[in-house]
Structure formats: C-alpha cells, structure tokens
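Now for a specimen:

…
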Amino acid sequence: MILKTNQNGVMGRWIATIGGYTMGSRLLGFLRDILIAASLGAGPYADVFIVAFKFPNFFRRLFAEGAFNAAFVPMFAKELEGGGRKTAYDFAEEVLSVLLPSLILLVAIAQIFMPWVIYCIAPGFSEDTEKFDIAVHLTRLTFQYIIFISLVSMLGGVLNSLYRFSSVAATPMILNISLILSLELISHWTETPAHALGIGVSLGGILQLIWLLVACERAGIKLKLRFPRLTTRVKKLILLAAPAAIGAGVAQINLLIDIIIASFLPEGSVSFLYYADRVSQLPLGVVGVAVGTALLPLLSRQLRSGDFDEVHKSQNRALRGALLLTIPATVALIVLAEPLIITLFERGEFTSSDSVATANALLIYAIGLPAFVLIKVFVPAFFAREDTKTPVIIAALCVLANVILNILLMKALGHLGIALATSISGWLNAIFLCFFLIKRGNLIIEFRLILRLISIFFASGLMGICIWLIHKNLIEPLSSDLGLRVTGLLILISVGVLIYFLAAYFLKAFTISEAV
C-alpha cells in the first residue's frame, strides 16, 4: 500500500533517518582514516592497504548502493505489492539460495588467482616485488568481506522494501568500528598496522551480517536456504543486476580505474586520491545514498499502483532535497579543502606536502560532487521501471571517457588529472541520464524547482564568500596548533551552515513545513 498522506514529510523523514545514520558512519570513517593516516601516512604501506581495501569495497558500493538493490528492491516490492509477504519472501529465499554458493565460489577462485587480480587492479605495483607481495596477502585477507556484505545487501534490500531503514542505515558504522578497534587493539601483534586493518575488514563483515540477521528476526523476517535453482525470477534478477552493476556503480568503476592508473604515478598518489575521495564522499553518502535508498522502493511501489502524478512529485522532491544540501557542501569543500585536510590528517606520518597534494585533489573531486549526487537521484527512476539498459549504456560511454581523460590529463597534472577526469565523466553521466528521463516523459521538472535551484546557488555563493573571508582574515592567522585548527574549522562550518540556511530560507529555497 502506498503511503499517500503527507508523502513529502514521510519521504523527508526517511531521508533524514538514512542520512543521519550515514553521517554517523562517515564521521566514524573519518576517525578511521585519521588513525590510518597517522599510522601509515601516504607511503607504500598506505598505498598497498588502500588497494586491498578498495577492491572488496568496490563490490560493497556496487551491491549495497548499486546493482543488487537496484535490481532486487523493485522486484521484491512488486512481489510484496502483488502477492503479499509470503510471495515476496519466497522470492528472497530463491535469490539467497543461489547467491550464497555463487559468492563462496567467487571468493575461492579469487584467492587462488589473487596475484593476477592485483596485477589487473594495481599493475604499477609489479615494479616493486615486496609491495606487490604485500598487496596480494592483504587483498586475500580482505576479499572474504564480499561474501558477508553481499548477504548484508540482500537482507538490507528486504528491510528497505518494508520501509525499515534504520537498521540497514546503521550497518556501515559496524565496519568502521571494527577497523578502528583492529588498528588500536591488534596492530601490535601483526606484521604491520596494514595487516591488522586487513583482519578488521573481514571481521567487520561478519559483525554486519549478524546485526542484520538480528534486525530481520525482530521484523519477523525468516528466510530459509533452499536447494539452488535458477528460477524464472532469479534469472530475471540476474539479467537486471548485471547491467545495473555498471549503471549504478559508475562512480566506483571510475575510482577503480583511477587506482589502476594512479599505481603508475609516484609513490603516494593512490593515497592522495583515497583521502580526498573519503572527504568528498561525506556529502555524497549522506545526501546521495540517502535519497537514492529512500526513492527506489517508493518509486517502485508508486509505479506498480499507477500513481504517476506522485512519481513526478517524488522525483522533484528528491532533486530539490538533494541539491539543497549538495550545492552548499560543494562550495564549502572547494573553499575549505586545505584547512579540512590539514585538520583531519596532518599528523604522524602524514606530512604538510601530503596535505597540499590531497587538498588539491579534494578541490577537483568537489567539482564533480553534485553530478554524482544527481546520478543517485536519476538512476532509481530507470531501475524502478526495470530499465537497466539505458544507465549501463550511458555509464559505459562515461567510463570510456574517463579512461581517455585519465591518460590525457595525468601526463600534465599527475594525480590531479585523474581526479579531474573523474569529475568530468560524472557530469557527462548525470547530464545524459537527465536528458533521457526528460525525453521519455519520465521526469517533468517543475518551474518551481528551477526557481528554488537559483535561490540555492545564490545562498551557496553568499556562504562561500563569507567563510572564505572569515578564514583568510580571522581563522588562518590564529591556527597555529591542532586545537586552534579544530576550533576554527568548527566555527567556520557553524557560521557557514547558519548563513546558508538563513539565506536559503529568505530566498525561498525551502519552507519550514518542508524541513520538518
């Protein structure tokens, strides 16, 4: 049954719930990265761990925020709407019984051929035998995570379809806690801190799975393993998920390509891009993932019931809410890139030159941030209609553009060229997705939305000018130690938020009733 009463408020609460937990996870992620930067810096061990962590994390992003949910949630929602919970749970059991043995087989094969895997994802490491061997060992430790996170993604899809977002949104926090505790508690007994982190990844996956199994039990969801069979519904899921992996995961595919190419650049390049990406991922995760996660099951059920007017309204609300938060975040990241990186990471093995290189990469990644948030909003509109072909074609073209731009720009700009290529390809992807949605009549942009976007840009620009002036004239001259830097940064962020929302309110970018 579609929730028709106060859908604006209901959807806003869902986004706030998901975004709040995601914010908590991202903050824990920052603490994790601060500890990693202090322990490993931007040197060879940092580069190796980042590759070992990024590879299974790449699959996590595709499954948890991309392909699996993109294909599974609309199908599960339709089964739920058409046949009730029993029919939907039967479908989930069919999927689970095929998914689990497939994952075990995949991980077993990857463990055997891991040296060839590393050669594919970080070919530049092959020039240093010791670095290459450590990368192989660490990735063998972390790759088992794929089994657990894929099962977590499926259970999360079931819970999200029932509008039980809280437990699923809290799940990423568990991985960050596991990594922090592993680094602090067991790194003294491992060969390097990087090895402790590798153990923490798999341990975190086990704990995440246990967490969602308990959440399902409390929600009355009991799924049983069956003998694996490729039923008609499972085959359809596979056909939808395969292209969706590329369509929804273009940002992750681009970042994986970035790592492959960055492995040929001077030492530290992989780390600079990783830390910059981590900071830029905060607004993308809090806003983009929250909106996309809440929007997909809602659109799927609205389309199933034929409520097309509400579909268009939901899409416009999602666009407005996403850009209301993303545009000012982009401006803030551009203006505060260097003080952010210095405050977060410059300690221990992480030097001032590392901060400058990372801050420059963050500035360029920030340019592409609105595009990647828009992709999170546009892609569910295709997937809810079970159209995974259009996003995959667009994504494939954009990935090709990213590769070409990487090769052209890295010669002149080094790791900054890689970041710039990612941002450009992200904008190409978002523009093409929007074009095809409008052309097919699947997205009708309200004139009111355009007026509000103009207000958002004006308010964001005013905020950016104010925090830049305050930083240059008041904060920067006084930021001589860590305590003062942290205090100054918190003041800048608080003042920026206040200025932006006051300006946005008076410019009618939003109303109080929409915010509650």
Remarks:
- The chain has a mean pLDDT of 82.
- Residues 9-445 form one domain.
